[in-house]
Design a protein that fits this description.
Layout: H1 7-21, E1 23-27, E2 35-44, E3 47-55, E4 64-68, H2 79-87, E5 91-95, H3 115-127, E6 134-136, E7 139-140, E8 142-147, H4 149-160, E9 164-170, H5 176-180, H6 188-199, E10 217-218, H7 240-252, H8 257-265, E11 279-284, H9 292-304, E12 309-314, H10 325-339, E13 352-360, E14 367-374, E15 385-387, E16 394-398, E17 435-439, E18 447-451, E19 454-461, E20 468-477, E21 484-485, E22 492-496, E23 503-508, E24 512-516, E25 521-527, E26 540-546, E27 550-552, E28 559-560, H11 567-586, E29 605-612, E30 622-629, E31 634-638, H12 645-652, E32 660-665, E33 668-669, E34 680-684, H13 695-706, H14 715-722, H15 737-749, E35 755-759, H16 767-782, E36 786-790, H17 794-800, E37 803-808, E38 811-817, H18 818-822, E39 827-832, H19 838-845, E40 850-856, E41 859-864, H20 869-878, E42 883-888, H21 892-899
Parallel strand pairs: 4-5, 4-8, 8-9, 9-11, 11-12, 12-13, 31-36, 31-37, 34-35, 35-36
Antiparallel strand pairs: 1-2, 2-3, 2-10, 3-5, 6-7, 13-14, 14-28, 15-27, 16-26, 17-25, 18-24, 19-23, 19-26, 20-21, 20-22, 20-25, 29-30, 29-32, 32-33, 37-38, 39-41, 39-42, 40-41
Helix pairs in contact: 3-4, 14-15
Length: about 900
């Protein structure tokens, strides 16, 4: 039975929507049911707040969710999450906070009298919606979530409004004063970013007095550019008291009591004792703004209040990295299913979860994540282990102007380098003379740190007031003692007062989750400056001595999940079985391989009548190619793109089968899997290495995979030729491109193959590295072995190769010694017995039939026009040129372009 609506009722409803209830639109989605969005401008006590309301097609009442945005953003930033929550069965209200997006008003940093009051009125609005489930009249079943600025409002809303039933704050603060003024040190870089984001011109402006009455919805937006009164233009959209706070602290470089009091009053910690609702706390490991210590304070307070709490440490954060958006949003929806829908069958996940880097996915180069979990939140000090530190008391300086500063975290730089510290990637800098360092012994076995390390030190300051501002950090130092990584790029500031005669203080280092590999050591660094913080500008001397061990928490109750297997781990064996079955069913008997040719047993390579045409191709990739390579030669295989070089090399290595002709290596015909290929080494398009292993371990692993005896590898000889030096004992992830190329070359030389094939070995190398690669090839061939190199660097080929094979359009153009190929042309080199003046060189250039004459290191380069070489000699003798010889001179580039008709290499 269909419900028929009277036409007058439908018309009335349309006018109601257009007049004051906003504009409804259907949000397109690949996943049913569809989502409807209503955009409304609500007047909240004279301030216009821009909102969007999302609902699905489900009938009946449903719980509601308030979804806040991050600082500097707007409601549009959270639209995708709002749509998904609506599909999951929630009525979702998003809004642009005061001073952001199209909302009017000034930024008060979640002021209880303004932004928090706005959130309470939005809950009032939800209570009046017919779609929203009510616990009692005026009390909607509502959860609040959001990230950063929006995460704080979820905590504050729960502390100020008893109608909030569940929260899920993400990467946010508990005490804003502690976050921006940790231990009394001004976090100037992040504070500056905050103020800059709120100081930018935007659509928001203050509403005119009496412009609208409370509770009404409007369809207009506030005029842009209206300047607030009672403050300077430099304050942007901030309230005057916040503008004054920032300018005061930024100038002095030191927070005052009034600034701290103001920020604490606007922090969730101010109402922490009132927050007793289920809370999912999501905090970022790559976050120097709101550290893991902030969520730890949340968890401890809310748990003491008796609230159900789950803590989730994600990989990314404000410093970048993987925010795990999809997983986190699914968990938030599940959290709300349990506590808003009261679905007790829902698994909300572990009480504590931390994302750990599980290596690098070889298919896309991205860091993979796996979870470590515990059925309770362990805090930041569980499983403490003492690690002794060595080193005498050390004196260092706080430089004048606190410059140059040390570098740890740099917001916005590196695209999440902090999240890759577990892979040995980092960005940190400590200037000599500005820090002290103390080392532990290398670890005998891996050590997983989960929480906040602590250490007691004694500090002495030469400052007039005996104060010091210090920055403590713990590095993971590699076996070589030089390569060091700062976990999550985090540093802990500390302000010490009254240290004229020395003062013992406990340094609480940043909370991290980081594994120290066996053979690595921990290093405590105490620095006088840091780029992210304000340091005293007056120079002073500090002396620091360790006064006890470094205590590190290990959270022993954590259970780390095994990394998920990529599809190819199980898929490739199945594909291999299928391919083998197909071969057994369809393969035809192969023709017998040609007999060895004893006459060619000492010839590294002979190609005869070689031709290859790919299926579907309109021409031969290689056509009737014939050439021969002798022992001790370094042969350059040249040709423009499409000349057939790569196809030739692939046939030479048995990767593809020629249509006609044959290839013989030391007299043996080449077929796929031919035994003689064990005498061939190749380096084609680089080599894949395991980044966490060092160079020697990678080579050993490769050789073991060949199944050949270890004594046949000749590793030491290959390494001596490749000249890798001490780099062999470093992890490959620390290698430069040149080092990787030389390691790949060493891998190709394992077993000291008699024939070495190199395809573009100098790709990505700088000039010094190219020279080193050239020397490696020459040294290798000097032992009587043979090298074939394909390259586009003609000048390099000219210096390193003894012989050339030039191809074009699949065919041989010319083969022979380099000197023979470059030895013809219209340019002659006149060698001299002594130096000649410039005037004499000019006279040579002015001779009839001479195009140009140029001085060079070897003498004079003369390019002929109509004059023949014999006549030139007579003219030179007539000018009294002290010549000792005249011979052809032509660069390989000139010869190459002549041979291929000017085509590009």
């Amino acid at each position: 039975m269909r419900l028929r609506i009277p036409r007058w009722a439908a018309v009335t409803a349309v006018f109601a929507v257009l007049a004051g209830a906003g504009t409804w639109t259907a949000v397109a989605s690949d996943d049913p049911p569809p989502v409807h969005r209503a955009d409304r401008m609500l007047d909240l006590d004279g301030t216009r707040i821009d909102t969007s309301y999302f609902t699905g097609d489900a009938e009946g009442r449903r719980p509601a969710v308030l979804l806040g945005h991050g600082f500097g953003g707007s409601k549009d930033d959270v639209r995708a999450q709002a749509e998904q929550l609506a599909r999951d069965g929630y009525a979702v209200l998003t809004w642009s906070a005061r001073g952001f997006g199209a909302s009017s008003g000034e930024i008060g940093l979640n002021d209880p009298d303004h932004e928090v009051k706005d959130a309470r009125k939005l809950i009032d609005w939800l209570a009046a919606r017919p779609e929203v489930l009510l616990d009692k009249p005026g009390d909607p079943r509502v959860g609040v979530t959001g990230a950063s600025y929006g995460g704080a409002i979820s905590l504050l809303a729960a502390g100020h409004d008893g109608r909030v039933d569940a929260i899920a704050p993400q990467i946010t603060y508990w005490n804003l004063a502690d976050a921006l003024f940790p231990d009394g040190v001004f976090k100037k870089l992040w504070a500056g970013i905050f103020f800059s984001a709120g100081n930018q011109p935007g659509a928001a402006s203050a509403a005119a007095p009496g412009e609208a009455t409370a509770g009404k919805a409007t369809t207009g937006t506030a005029p842009a550019g209206t300047a607030p009164t009672a403050k300077t233009a430099a304050c942007g959209r901030f309230t005057p008291e916040l503008c004054s706070l920032y300018e005061r602290v930024a100038v002095s470089g030191k927070p005052d009591a009034a600034a701290r009091t103001l920020l604490e009053a606007r922090s969730p910690s101010a109402v922490g004792s009132r927050i007793k609702v289920p809370a999912l706390l999501v905090q970022g490991q790559s976050d120097s703004l709101f550290t893991l210590a902030q969520s730890d304070a949340m968890a401890r307070t809310l748990t003491a209040n008796g609230a159900p709490v789950a803590v989730d440490w994600i990989s990314g954060g404000h410093d970048g990295g993987d925010r795990e958006t999809e997983r986190v949003e699914r968990r938030i929806s599940t959290w709300f299913d349990r506590w808003l829908k009261k679905d007790t069958s829902v698994d909300t996940g572990p009480s504590f979860r931390v994302s750990r880097t599980g290596g690098v996915d070889s298919t896309d180069g991205q860091a993979t994540l796996r979870a470590a979990t515990d059925d309770r939140y362990p805090g930041l000090t569980a499983g403490a282990t003492d690690i002794p530190l060595a080193g005498p008391a050390q004196t260092f300086a706080n430089p004048a102007g606190a410059a140059p500063p040390a570098v740890s975290a740099v917001p916005g730089l590196g695209g999440g380098v902090a999240g890759l510290s577990s892979l040995g990637v980092g960005l940190s800098l400590d200037f000599p003379g500005q820090h002290a360092r103390f080392d532990a012994k290398p670890q005998d076995e891996p050590l997983r740190i989960t929480g906040t390390p602590t250490v007691r030190v004694k500090v002495t300051s030469t400052a007039t007031d005996g104060s010091a501002v210090l920055f403590a950090k713990v590095y993971d130092v590699g076996p070589d003692g030089r390569q060091q990584v700062l976990p999550a790029q985090l540093v802990a500031p500390v302000r010490v007062d009254g240290a004229q005669a020395g003062k013992s203080v406990t340094l609480t280092l940043p909370a991290i989750d980081h594994e120290v590999e066996a053979g690595h050591r921990l290093r405590l660094v105490v620095a006088a400056t840091d780029l992210g913080y304000a340091s005293p500008t007056v120079p002073a001397g500090y002396t620091v001595a360790v006064d006890g061990p470094l205590t590190v928490p290990t959270a022993p109750g954590l259970d780390t999940q095994a990394a998920a297997l990529p599809w190819w781990v199980w898929g490739l064996p199945l594909l291999g079985l299928a391919a083998a079955a197909a071969l057994l069913l369809t393969a035809r008997r192969r023709t017998a391989a040609p007999s060895p040719d004893p006459g060619l047993a000492a010839v590294p390579l002979q190609i005869t009548g070689l031709s290859k045409k790919y299926k579907g191709g309109d021409r031969y990739s290689v056509k009737d190619l014939t050439f021969r390579v002798e022992q001790g030669q370094v042969l350059g295989l040249l040709g423009p793109n499409g000349a057939g070089k790569t196809t030739t090399l692939r046939m030479l290595m048995g990767l593809i089968t020629p249509d006609e002709g044959e290839i013989r290596v030391f007299g043996q015909a080449i077929r796929p899997g031919a035994p003689v290929l064990s005498r061939v080494g190749s380096f084609v398009e680089g080599a894949g290495f395991l980044p966490h292993l060092n160079g020697r371990e990678n080579l050993d692993l490769y050789w073991r995979a060949t199944g050949r005896p270890a004594q046949d590898a000749h590793v030491d000889e290959a390494l001596r030729i490749a000249n890798l030096g001490n780099a062999l004992d470093r992890a490959v992830r620390t290698y430069s491109q040149g080092m990787r190329q030389r390691l790949a070359l060493a891998q190709a030389m394992l077993g000291l193959p008699d024939l070495l094939i190199l395809d573009e070995p100098t790709n990505g190398l700088d000039p010094p590295q190219i020279r080193e690669m050239r020397e490696v090839m020459i040294r290798y061939a000097a032992g009587g072995r043979t090298v074939i190199v394909s390259s586009h660097l003609l000048a390099e080929v000219e210096q390193s190769c003894t012989h050339l094979v030039v191809m074009d359009r699949g065919q041989l153009v010319q083969a022979g010694p380099v000197a023979e190929i470059t030895g013809s042309g219209d340019t002659l080199l006149v060698t001299l017995g002594e130096a000649v003046p410039d005037a004499l060189v000019e006279k040579v250039g002015a001779l009839p039939g001479v195009a140009t004459a140029t001085r060079t290191d070897g003498g004079i380069l003369v390019r002929l026009d109509t004059l023949d070489p014999t006549a030139l000699i007579g003219e030179l003798v007539g000018l009294d040129v002290p010549l000792t010889g005249v011979g052809p001179h032509r660069r390989l580039e000139d010869a190459f372009l002549t041979l291929i008709g000017g085509g590009a290499a």
